[in-house]
Amino acid sequence: STDIVNLANLLLFVRYELNNEVHDDILFCQPIPIHTTGEAIFKVIDDFIKNNYLDWSRCVGISTDGTRAMIGSKKGVVARIQAVVLEAKTTHSCIHREALTTQNMQADLKQILDEAVKIISFVKGR
Superkingdom of the source (predicted)? Predict the structure, then answer.
């Protein structure tokens, strides 16, 4: 994604089970060139995994925004990860789907949804 000054950042989240509880955390956030390839993005991820002694075999799923660099069938990030971890499943990010859906939503419905998101975020933050 790009930030407010139009710099691209690769933000990687992880979901894992620890003590019978599911946790979601940011694994890392690293600047990358705005126009980059799936191979370059995979290299950033792979370098992080290796430099931090993480185990690719523990990766069971991948959720992406669906861009070509991410889902390209031969050189996309998903294809590169699945070449390393054959069992890894892939899904299209639900958050990205929600954002796409709201682009064409009626203004009054979008306002209600935005308010609901604010309330949920407030409650989750407490």
Answer: Eukaryota
